[in-house]
């Protein structure tokens, strides 16, 4: 087998071993009293950690492959089909390029083969017998792992755990297994670290200032994805009460907007993250009993610089820094050093909290605000619309937020003066592997769900009511439920009606552009990863909204109508 094929198979089956070991450590009642001792539990925990660390190292290799798109890399990491890895010829070539020398490639292939052999020996399978001479027969090893994987999918993992795992039998075998796994883990660390360092050196030599073809919007999206990927890697929460929640400020997108003819080298995001009570009662709430459960934070991503990180501490786990916090008034400051292929997270000094939110009031969704509050001034609504447009073009189709753009998932916090409409927040699922972009829906007329959602949000924000208030049950619903095209057809009808008669043409044009995508050719895909779509959204939506906000900030002259 090729180096990538072996690595891919290891990557595909490792989650099964991680899950199985975790099950054994937690479900101790399923193991006989004779084996239920501290040494065995220590073995489970150590084995789980070694396999988890090995999985992360192989993922580093995949995410560092040159000339492979981010979406394709995520697809590889998530793939659990063993048979497919032998067909990925382009990935094998990318692996050879990443490892550079034949010696590095041979070392990587050797380590992965040893890991594959070790995993196959751990699985007992009566239908595939491995003799001592067969331990190098990768075909038989592959068949054993495939059978084990199929058994897991059929739900047989828990019931047959003791029978299928050989290392439960003898302490000597367990010690040998763990010793070998640690050795191969250390060696894969050496190979991967060497390859990443070499890639960074090549980048430093060959990097040139971006030319006109490096579009600022594309660079902004790339930086955003690297920032969220780096945060996700540190979000390995081990708190006993559960993972920390995160709310990212979409206003950060408007503050870091791309400027034509300017190089985009860094950006920052403000966020809130939940803090757990240090003494949560058994069976009680995992969140603090104090009314305010959020801690402020700011994260910035920028090119590597010794001056920036010399006063910080390297951060591996987000929980580590939270345990050191003395007060909820302390705000996190995080720095991500960007080396394109790899990123390093640093914790900087604490800062004072900046937000003046009423801490006795919980967050409220945009949907609830539209239902229960009166409309704010027109310029406030335009500013909110502009923030959401910037966030769509910067973050939609990313691994983190693609399916979140709706009034149910956008939330606000309260100040003494009312809701802080200038800072909408969105929940971000950093405790699970990123999902990637939404799958296509062939029943939907519109070619990009995010751009359609933006058009709907622009209507809802202007009218200060949900689009569903315009539904007509006979024409818009089937069996009382919306169809994949309900939002589009209702939005078009509202756009043509008197409901938006009080809009300037600039705002109506921005909505129409979201619904019609006039820059796209018939039949072609519409993706925010494409420069044509980025420029279309910027020119047809963002610039008109910026023009309206600009005029809304002016004091009215004599004879003009003030924005209220």
Number of strands: 14
Spans of at least 5 consecutive residues whose pLDDT stays below 50 are 28-36, 124-138, 156-164, 205-213, 279-290, 554-564
Number of helical elements: 19
Q: Level of helix content?
A: 40-55%
Determine the oligomeric state from the structure: single chain
> How does the overall form come out from the CA principal axes?
globular
| β-strand amount | 5-15%
Overall tally of domains:
3
Compute the CA-based radius of gyration: 27 Å
Average pLDDT over all residues: 75
- What composes the largest sheet? 10 strands, mixed
Label the structural class: alpha+beta
Distance from N terminus to C terminus (CA atoms, Å) equals: 69 Å
Tell me what the structure shows.
This protein is α+β, with helices and mostly antiparallel strands. It has three domains: 3-206, no CATH class; 216-352, no CATH class; 364-552, Transferase(Phosphotransferase), domain 1 (Orthogonal Bundle). Helices cover 48% and strands 10% of the residues. It is built from 19 helices and 14 strands. The strands form three sheets. Strands 1, 2, 3, 4, 5, 6, 7, 8, 9 and 12 form a ten-stranded mixed sheet that branches. β10 and β11 form a beta hairpin. α5 packs antiparallel against α8 (171-206), α14 (378-395) packs antiparallel against α19 (531-552) and α15 (449-463) crosses α17 (486-496). It is globular, with a radius of gyration of 27 Å. It starts with a helix and ends in a 12-residue tail after the last helix. Residues 28-36, 124-138, 156-164, 205-213, 279-290 and 554-564 have low confidence and may be disordered.
